[in-house]
Amino acid sequence: MTTRMLLRSAAVALAALTLGAPSLEGQVSTRIKDLTVLEGDVPVRLVGYGLVVGLDGTGDRAVGTSQGGGATVRSVANLLRNLGVDVPENVIRTRNAAAVLVTAEVSSYLRRGNRFEVSVASLGDATSLRGGQLWVTPLVGELQGQPIATAQGSIMISQGNLDGARTVETSGRLPQGGVAVADLASLGLANVGRLMLNRPDLTTAQRIAETISGSLGEGTARVEDPGAVAVDIPADQDPASVLAGLGELEVIPDAIAQVIIDARDGTVAAGGPLLVGAGVVSHGYLTLTVGAEGTEPPAQGAVRMEPGVRVQDVAEALHAVGATPESIAAVFESLHQVGALRARVVVR
Fold first, then answer.
1. How far out from the chain centre does Cα 36 lie?
2. What is the pTM of this model?
C-alpha cells in the first residue's frame, strides 16, 4: 500500500469517527420538568357520544321511518324525551343535527370544576359542523364507567390555510368546553418515587439521575430503565418543594440522530447537525455523489458534494435540481442503508 493510499485510509477513518462521535456542542440544556412527568401523571383519555345541534342543513341525512330511525334520529328522540317532549321518530328530520364522538386528554391531577379542551368528530354523514352547538355530553374514562366530566358549547373550526387547502369541517374543538365533575385519582406527591421520561433514552436518564444526585445527595437518584429515574426524597423534606426544585434543574438531553422527511412536500427535518459521508445514490434521473472524485462536468440531475456535508445542504441541493418529495425520501433512505448517513430515516 502506497503512502498516498495510507493517508487516504487514515483520512476516511478519521472522518468516520468524526461523523459518528457524539458531541454536546450546539445542544441546548433543558429543564428536567420538560423532559419528564411525575409517576402517576399519566394522561387520562375521555370519550363520549354526543349530538351537535343548530346546523344549517349540513347535519346527518338520516330520516325517521315507521320502523324507527338511525342513531342520530333515536338520539334526538331520546334527548327530547328526557326534556319531557315525546316525539315519534318517524317525524324527526335531522339535517340540523349530527351525531359526534367527543374526545379529550386530561391530566390525572384534574379536579372537580377544572375546564379543558375537547374535540368532536362526526360519526354520520354530516357535511359540516360549522356553527353547531354540542349538547351536554357525559365523558367517561372507560367503557361503562361513571362520567368523569361533561362537554358542552360552541364548536370552533379552523378557517383553512392561506394556500387554498380544503378545510375539513366534520371535526372541530371546544377550547374550554369540558368541565370535570369528579376528582381524578392520583398517587399524590408523597408517593412519587419515579420520574418518567417523555422520550425514553438511557443516556438522558443517566444525565438526569446524575444531576439530581448532585443536588439531593449521592445515590438519591438512580436509573431503573431508559424510561424511568427513581428518586429517594428525604423523609424530613416536603415532597412538593423537592420535586419543584428538581424540575428546574437543567440537563442536556441526548441528541437523537434522526431525519424526518415529508413525502408529500419534500420537507426535511434533521435532529441536530447530522453529516453525510461518502456514497453514491442513483434514483431515476437523479444521481447524488458524495465524496467520489471526478473532473467531468455534472450531468443534468447530478449532484456532487464533499464528504461531511450537512443533511440540510444535501436537502437544499436536491430541491435545487427539482427532485420530487418521493425521490428525496428514497435518496436519504439509501444513504442510511449504505452507511453514509448514520441516523434513523423516517418518511411520513
1. 15
2. 0.65
pLDDT of residue 10: 34
| d(C-alpha 129, C-alpha 308), whole Å | 52
**pLDDT confidence of 236, banded at 50, 70, 90?**
confident
pLDDT tens for residues 142-179? Answer: 877 889 999 999 999 977 544 555 678 999 999 999 99
| Residue linked to cell 493517508 | 7
Helix (H, G, I), strand (E, B) or coil at 251: strand
Grid look-up 469517527 returns: 17
Q: Report the alpha-carbon distance of residue 34 to residue 37 in Å, rounded.
A: 8
Residue 131 φ then ψ, to 5°? 85, 0
C-alpha cell at 242: 423537592
pLDDT of residue 26 exceeding 70: no
Cell 434514483 locates to: 283
CB-CB neighbours of 346 under 10 Å: 15
Report, in angstroms and rounded to the nearest whole number, the Rg of the chain calculated over CA atoms.
29
Quote the DSSP letter at residue 278. S
Nearest to 48 by CA among 119, 138, 136: 138
Output the pLDDT for position 77.
78
To the nearest 10 degrees (0 to 180), the angle between helices 325-337 and 311-320 is 140
Tell me the average pLDDT across 231-236.
Answer: 88
Grid cell listed for 89: 321518530
C-alpha closest to that of 155 among 141, 134, 135, 137: 134
How many residues are present in the chain?
348
**Rounded CA separation 115/149 (Å):** 9
How many Å apart are CA 112 and CA 313, to the nearest integer?
A: 52
Q: How far is CA 224 from the centre of its chain?
A: 25
